[in-house]
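User: Structure please.
Assistant: Input sequence and predicted structure:
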Amino acid sequence: MRGVKRVVVVLAILIIVLVVLGFMLENQQGVSLSFLGWVTGQMPVSMFIVAALIIGMLLGPLLSVIVGWGRRETSMSARRA
């Protein structure tokens, strides 16, 4: 059973990688972004979207740890009182 789970996980990761690769190959139009006075150079659309995905994947867990830590501190101080 453990081997079947491993095969399913590897296949799921492979499918995700292929979908992202296909997305990147289909979105090669050059664009420039402007936000609050900050302007980027010409890059493919897919680079901006993949960069946003990676930043979100890093910030999401980080924020959940920070919020969870704050809740844990609040519950600990409520128990002491």
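The chain has a mean pLDDT of 84.
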